[in-house]
Each structure stands twice: as structure tokens, then as C-alpha cells.
Amino acid sequence: MMKVIVVGTGYVGLVTGTCLAEIGHRVICIDKDEMKIEKLKRGISPIYEAHLEDMICRNIKEQRLSFSTDMKEVAEDTQVIFIAVGTPSLEDGDVDLSQVEEVAREIGKSLVSYGVIVNKSTVPVGSCVRVAQIIRQNLRKDISFDVVSNPEFLREGTAVYDTFHGDRIVIGSRSKKAVEVLRELYKPFHQKFFITNPESAELIKYASNAFLATKISFINEMANLCEKTGGDIRAVAEGMGMDQRIGNKFLQAGVGFGGACFPKDVKGLLKTGEKYGYDFKIIRQTLAVNEGQKQKPLRILEENIADWKGIKVGILGLAFKPGTDDVREAPALQIIKDLRGKGAQIRVYDPVANASMQSVLQFPITYCNNPYDAVTDCDAVILLTEWPEFQELNLRKIRRLMKRTIFIDGRNVFASEAMGEKGFDYYPMGIGSEETAQRKLKEGVVKVNESEKSNYTSGRTWN
Ligand code: UDX
Q1: Is residue 29 annotated as part of the catalytic site, yes or no?
Q2: Which domain, by its residues, includes 232?
């Protein structure tokens, strides 16, 4: 059993702290937000995560978990201190490290004996060194300490499960002593350790998220090509995924990725490249493709609607993925703004995210309590989040309630034939037909910019 301090009770800090208490450590979670701490002391979680609140209550009761606003909790017997505060994107895509730096100063002032300081927040390469510098500058007496990078790979909605079933625990440190402390801390999780230097560990986090985002943008581009050539992206993805080197995950085509991590981390990695004099071309395109993908529903509507006067559009699903009320960087945000730009009336329904959308949108739209209300009198319906309950929709009723028949399925929830039979003009993502393929072939060749073309034709060929 160790004494652990976690600074920052956001999604990462709170889940990490609670799960460490669950495996027997004595954990104090610190946050400067007094209201949040007061609620947490009463067992009320500020975020919704499956199993989290129950676990918080149980560990408070069993006296392994407590909450505080005071860094003085960093007393003599603390072995590990986690930094788990926010690292939002700045305007220019760079990472705002001000909260991490502030906590490092506080830790420096409060440290009284050797401790391992763990960077859990997603921070750019070089941050361990920076945090160590700040701590050293703020120490009140000569105390030894180590700063370690230990990124998390938690998904929203399944963060508790992911903590207990992670594929690996990455530890970036040049100190054997610190590595041993963390091995001991995490031992009850029975997970594989991957030990490397701090810079590599910091990069592993960004590389993993950027790679997954790139996988999504790749499959979305394949989907766009399927539409023109008569392919079906679901079959293409399945066939590709059977190759174990590719794997069958993260190959679902749709209206693009969103959330608090992928867009921020891809931009962050691009910025790191810029700072160190490297242009990371692939992930630049990952972002560009994702932006294009979010505009896809509007492009489909523009091809089908000549006069936008009085047009009503219903949106099913606002959250960036099912299982959360999070709308940060959700494709729905962009799509709603685009539709408003066209002068459309917008009706929306999400099983849990109506309120979070309302709190970020600067203009009024109609929030509905059920999907049928959202599609009533609409010229078009766009499905943006694959909530399981949408699979149970009474599609005949939807069709009856709508004024016109355009149904854009941004997450490929339904089957084309069934939607056609029910009388919809159905637009899934990446499912082409033979007729379109013939037409597209006649329409001719896309002109590739000559300079771009020379980039890939000037390379060495192997035949
Ligand atoms: C992600 C990473 O998975 C996690 O490891 C990291 O710690 C935080 O970022 P999260 O943001 O919770 O987790 O969501 P995730 O489930 O990865 O989905 C991200 C986005 O990609 C969603 O908008 C989702 O709709 C989209 N996505 C995912 C696709 O469009 N297609 C896919 O095949 C998979």
C-alpha cells in the first residue's frame, strides 16, 4: 500500500485516483475547484463514467480515498504524486501547459521527502524535463525526486474498464528507483509494463492517438472512393481487418472523429513537428480529411436541395460517440453551424447530450425529447452518433413523420436495401452502386495537381 496524491480531478485524474484506491492504495485527490471537491467528498462524481461513482463511494467509505483543495497534503509519507490537470489546445494548435507548470511549482514548494512525480496529463515531448526544472527551482530544501512520464490510454465511457484492462502501462524514466516505485504501485493491475525514456513515453501517447486518427481518416477516404467505384466500405474494412497486421478496429467509416483527445493531440503533434523543424505531412492530411468528412452531410444536401427556403433538418445524435454526453469537437457542432449558415431550421435529439450541446451553441435550435419529434416535418434527417437505441427506431414511423425523404446515415447504422424499401432516399457513408460507378467513370478523371503528382511519381520504383 502506498500513499498517493493525484492533482487534478478531471476525467483522467479522478479515474486514475479512484482505481488506485480500489486496488488498495491510500489516495488523496486534490483540485482547486472547491465546489467540485465538496461534491466529491459526498461521493458525487462531476463526470459520468460507468462504475466510477460507485467506486468513489466505496473507497471513501473504506477510507482509502479522500479529497482536498490543499497541496499541504503532500506530506512526509507521500510516495507518488500524479499531475493530471488539463492541457487544452491554444488557438494555434499548441498545447497550453500553464496548469501543469502551476502544479509543478506547487509540488516544488510542498515536497518534503523523496517522491516520484508522474506526468499523467497528455503533454508534449520535453515536458518531463520542464516539470523537473520547475520543481527544482521551487524546492524549499535539497530533496531528491524523479519526474516520470506515464501516459494514459483511456477512452471516455469505458475509462474504468480500460484502467483495469489496459494493453500496456508505459513508463518513461531514466531512474531505476522511480521505475521500481511505479511497478510496485501498478502491480495489482497485472498488466504488461513498457519501460522507456521520458521523451519516447511522451511521444508514444501522441503517436498512438495520431495513428488511430489516421486510421479513421484513411478508412473515410476509402469510403469516399467506394461511393464512386461501387464498393461497400463495410466489406472493404472487414476484408482488410482480417489481416492481423492491420487489425479490425478503428476502421468504421463515418462523418469523422471528434472528442477531447484526437483533434487536440493530432494538432499537438503537428505543432511539435513545427517546433523541432519537421513537417509531419501525414497527420496534416489526417486533419484535413477529417474536416472534409464533417462537411459531407452538407454536400449531400446541397446536391439534393435547390431552394433552402423553409428547409427543416432533423439531427439524431449530438455526442462525439455513443455512451457519453461529450460534444467537444463533435462532428455535430460543425454540421449544425453549416446548416445554420444555409438558413435551415434545425431540430435535434440525443439521448443524453442535448444539454451539453445547448451549453456550447451560441444560437437557438430546437431540442427534442425523442427522435420522432426531431424528424417531424423535416426535409432531411442526419444521423451522427450510433447510439444503440437508434437501431430500434420505427423507421416507417420516421418516414411518415418526415416531409421529404432524405436520410443521411453518418455512422452506417442501417441497411441500404431496407431503407430503400421503406421509401427513403438513403445516403450511408461509403456504399456505392454499380450505376454510380459507371457514371463516375464517364464523368472522367480527377485532375491531380502536377506538383503533388511529381511528389509521388519521382520516388524510386521497384519494377
Ligand atoms: C481516444 C483514444 O481511443 C484513447 O486511447 C485516448 O486516451 C483518448 O482518445 P475517446 O476520445 O474516448 O478515446 O474516443 P474513441 O472511442 O477513441 O473515439 C474517438 C472518435 O473517433 C469518435 O468521434 C468516434 O466516433 C471516431 N471513430 C472511432 C470513428 O469514426 N471510426 C472508428 O472506427 C473509431
Answers
A1: no
A2: 211-437
